[in-house]
Amino acid sequence: MNIHSAHSIYDHDLDKNDANYSAMTPLGFIQRTAAIYPTKTAVVYGDVRRSWAETWLRVRKVASALKRRGIGLGETVSVIAGNIPEMFEVHFAVPMTGGVLNTINTRLDADAIAFILNHAEARMVIVDPEFAGVAEQALHISGRDIPIINIEDPTWPDGHKIGSDTYDNLLAEGDENDEWVWPADEWNAISLNYTSGTTGDPKGVVYHHRGAYINALGNILDWGMGKHPVYLWTLPMFHCNGWCFPWTIAAAAGTSVCLRAVRAEPIFDLIKREQVTHFCGAPIVLSLLANAPDAMKKGISHKVSIMTAASAPPAAILESMDELGFDVTHAYGLTETYGPAVVCAWHDEWNDLDISEKARLKARQGVRYTVLDGLMVADPETLEPVPADGETMGEIFFRGNNVMRGYLKNPSSSEKAFRGGWFHSGDLAVVYPDGYIQIKDRSKDIIISGGENISSIEVEGILYRHPAVMEAAVVARPDDKWGETPCAFVGLKDGATVTEADLIAFCRANMAHFKAPKTIVFGSLPKTSTGKIQKFILREQAKGL
Amino acid sequence: MNIHSAHSIYDHDLDKNDANYSAMTPLGFIQRTAAIYPTKTAVVYGDVRRSWAETWLRVRKVASALKRRGIGLGETVSVIAGNIPEMFEVHFAVPMTGGVLNTINTRLDADAIAFILNHAEARMVIVDPEFAGVAEQALHISGRDIPIINIEDPTWPDGHKIGSDTYDNLLAEGDENDEWVWPADEWNAISLNYTSGTTGDPKGVVYHHRGAYINALGNILDWGMGKHPVYLWTLPMFHCNGWCFPWTIAAAAGTSVCLRAVRAEPIFDLIKREQVTHFCGAPIVLSLLANAPDAMKKGISHKVSIMTAASAPPAAILESMDELGFDVTHAYGLTETYGPAVVCAWHDEWNDLDISEKARLKARQGVRYTVLDGLMVADPETLEPVPADGETMGEIFFRGNNVMRGYLKNPSSSEKAFRGGWFHSGDLAVVYPDGYIQIKDRSKDIIISGGENISSIEVEGILYRHPAVMEAAVVARPDDKWGETPCAFVGLKDGATVTEADLIAFCRANMAHFKAPKTIVFGSLPKTSTGKIQKFILREQAKGL
C-alpha cells in the first residue's frame, strides 16, 4: 500500500507547489497593509499626508509605468534622493517590476556617482531636485544615455531638472491594475547598495528578496517594535535601504515621517507633532539632540525608541537620552548584512545598574539578530573562535540569510569575503563571557606600535571621556622607532579648551602609557554622509605630519 | 571587463554559499535564546523551574541519545504526552536528530493511535504516564515492536510504565557536546500532525522547518507579543504543535508555563503566581474562565492576552474577558496551516465601539497573517473570488509558506487539497467590504433546506444569544419534504430552563423563519480534545431521530 524507499517516507509526494511555497519578499507587506489599514497614514512629508491606500496606488502606478517603459527582471534603476515620499515608494515600485533598486549616497561626488551608474549598468535614474546638479554632472561623466526621471518637490527651492521627464509622468502613465511581479525566486536581486569604500572603487552589494524580507521582520522582532510604529527618517534611505526599514514599516503597518535634513529643530518638532515612536541614527544624531537647547526638548511625554549603530553611544549621550525619556538600542551591522544584524539585547536586570555600568554594557555590539543564524569572533586565518574572555581579539564573522548575495561583478572580492563559508566583516572584536561581542577596531584601523596592537577605538573611548572633547578619531602615524604611534584628531565642544599636553596626560592617566596618543591635532573631523569619521583622510594627514 | 549575458548582471557570481544561505529552522531560536538569556526561566511545571541553559542542555542530551539510538533523517518519533516540560523539549530534540516529531492527540482511542503509529512508521514512541494505558494497548494493536520511552512524572499519581526504558535514561546517555543536525534543506519535514478527522482515517499533515520557522515568527508579529512572554499552556501541544508556540516562545525568549489539565482554578492560580501574559484556547476555555467564581478571578492587575480560535468568541464571553482585563485576539487556521494563519487584526478606532459592535467585528476571522502570502474566499470550482459584500459565500483558500507540505503517503488527498495552486480549507465564508473574512460553515456542515443554504453557524449564533444557552450545535436532519431541516443540540447553563417551543420561537424572532431549527435536543455535547463540538456524532443522532 505504501510507497517505500531507501530514503524516507517524507521524500515522496510532498513537493513544492503554488499553494505551499511562495517566494519570500517584502513586497507582500505593503500589499497586505494597504488592504487591512487603507486609511492609516503611511507617509508624512511636510504638509503631505498619504494613507496606505494612496501610497499603494502610487506604488502600483509607478511600477506599471516603469514596466511599460521597459524595466524588467534584473535591470538596475538608480535613485539619487533624500528621505522623501518618492524614495520610500521606489523601494516597492522598482522591485515590483522585477528590477533592482540602486539607491545612491547623495553626498558622493559626480565621479563616484558616474562610476556607480556605469558599474550598475543603470537603465534609468530617478533624481531629487536637491541633487539634480551633481546627478547631471555624473551622467555627463558616465556617458550613459538613459532616461532621467525628475522628482518635483514644491518644498525644495531650486527646481532644477535634467530634461523634462518627471515622476508625476510615471504616476500619470501607470495603470494600477497592471500586474506586478511577485519574484519567481526569492534569491532574485531586490537592491544594490554600494559600500562607501574608504579607498578604491566602491563595491556593489547585492541584496535579495529573501534577505530583505527576513531582516525587515528581524528589525521588528529584535527592536520589539510592535504594531504601527511612527518612524522618523533620520537615517538615510540610501544607506543599506535605510537598514531595511521601508520594508519593516510596511510590515508593521507604521507611518514613515520623512525628513530632508538631519537638524535638531525639525526632529524635535516632528517627534512632538507626529508622536514619533522610533528613529535610527549614528551617535552623531543623538549627540545633536543631546546638545539642543532645553526649550526644544520640552513637551515630549510619550516613549521614543532609538536604534543607533556605527559606533558605541558614549555614557554622556545615553544619560541625556535617558533624561529625554528616549530608550536607546545599540545595533551593529554592515552594508553586507542588510544593515543591523547584531543587537545589544538588553536584560531587564541591567536597568537597576548605574548609568556608567549601563553605558559600558550598552557599548557592546551584542548578539546575533533572531534571523541571523551565525555570529562569531574568530581568527581570520583559521576561523577558530576566540575565547570568550573579553580580551582576545578576533575578526567578526556572519552567517545567515541576511548576508548579501555578494559583490556585483566582483567575484574575487566576493570569494574573499565568503572564504570558509563565513562573511568576513573586517571588524575586530572581543567576546565577553556572556557571549556579547564588542568591536575594538576595523582590521585596517589597528595601530601597531613597538609590536603591540593598539585599538584606536579604545583610545578614542578615553578621549571621549574628557569634558572638552566633542569628537575624536585615532589613527596610526608612521614612526621610525616604533613603526607606528597613535595620532589623535580631536574636535572640541563649543567654547571648550584643552592643550595637547593636558589631553595626552589625561590619556596616560587612564590607560596603558604606550597606548596614549603621541600627537594630537585639533579641528573638525571629515565624515561620511552617514556620520562615520573618514579615517582614511586622517591617516593621510597623519602621514604628512 | 564585465561578463555580459543575455540575462542580467545579477545572474553571475552571486550564488548561495554557507555564509549567505542558511536553512530556516526554529532550532536556531532555542540555541540563540539559551546563549543570550541562559538564566531566564524557560519552563515552569509545578515546583519545577528550569532556565533556558538547563532546558537547552536537556534538549541536546535527548537529541544526542536519540541519534545514538539510531533516529535520523526523515524518521518518525511519536509522542503521547500532556503539556509537560518533556513535551516542550521534544519539539527541539527530535528535529535536532533530523527526525520528525509526531505528537499524538492524547484523547484518541487505542485503535486510532495504533493507526497513526503504523501509518507514520514510528521508530520510537515517547509516553507520558497519564497515557501509558492507552499507548500500551495501541502498541499491542499496531503490532509495532519499537523502543518505548517512558516519561516519569512524580506529580502523576499512577506511575504505570511500558517496559523499563525512560526519558531519564536518554538524559543520562546523551552527550550535550554531540553535534546536532541543522537541516540541510529547510523543506525537510519537522513534524507530522494527524488531523482529528471527523470521518474516515486521519490524515498526516507534514510540516517543514521553513514553515515552522516563519509561522513561529508570525505569531509574535501578528499577536504583537513582544519579548519575554510568559505563556500558559492551555492549548494542547499535540494540536498543530501547539500552533507553533513552542518555537515562538523560544524565539521570543519567553517562559512556558506547563499545565496538565485545563481547569479554572490552576489557570487563575498560575496567571497570578507566574504573571502569565499570554495563552491560547478555544472559546470553551474562555467560557470556563468567565464562569469561574468571582473569588478566583480577583487579584490580577497585569495585562493578559488571549488568542482564541476554532469558533468565534460570543459577545458575552468577550465582555467577561474585558472585565477581567483580558485582551482577546481572534485567529483562525487549520492543522494544514500550522495552526493560526489568519487573524482578526484589530483597529484602534474599534475600541470606541460598544461591546456588541466590537463582538460583531471580532467574530470575524479576519485577514492573512503577515507571513501568509495569499488568502481568498472563492468559488471552489472556478477559484473565482467572491465579491466582498459580506453575503456571498465561498470557500476559504490559503497560499504561502505556512501551508503544509502535504498529507503523508496520501498523494490523492494532497492533490485534491492543492488543486489550482491554492489550499482548499473546506471552510465556507463571506468577505466584508473591508476585506475581513467570516466563516459561515464547514462545507459539510451547511444545511440545505428547500434548496436554500442555511449556515449552521448563523443559527448557533442566535441560539447562543439566549440567556439559558450554554452551548449549541446545529446540524442537518434529513427531511422528506425539505430535504434537510436544521436540528439544534443545546446544552443549558446550570440551573437554567427553557422549552423547545420557546427556543424555536426565540430563533424565529431573530432570523429568517426557514433558518430556525425545527427540532431541539437538550443535553451536553460531544467534543474533541481541542474543544470542537463533534458534529459528525450529532449528525448521526439527527438522522436517527
What does this structure look like?
2 copies of one chain form a homodimer. The first copy, chain A, has about 550 residues and is an alpha/beta fold. Chain A folds into 3 domains: about 130 residues, 3-Layer(aba) Sandwich (Rossmann fold), CATH 3.40.50; about 230 residues, ANL, N-terminal domain (Rossmann fold), CATH 3.40.50; about 100 residues, ANL, C-terminal domain (GMP Synthetase, Chain A, domain 3), CATH 3.30.300. In chain A, the strands form 6 sheets. A 9-stranded mixed beta sheet of chain A has the order 2-1-10-9-11-12-13-14-15, sandwiched between helices. At the A-B interface, helix 1, helix 7, strand 15, strand 17 and helix 15 of A face helix 1, helix 7, strand 15, strand 17 and helix 15 of B.
Describe the structure using short key phrases:
nine-stranded mixed sheet, homodimer, 545 residues, GMP Synthetase, Chain A, domain 3, alpha/beta, disordered N terminus, Rossmann fold
Question: What's a concise summary of this model?
Answer:
Two copies of one chain form a homodimer. By secondary structure, chain A is α/β, with parallel strands linked by helices.
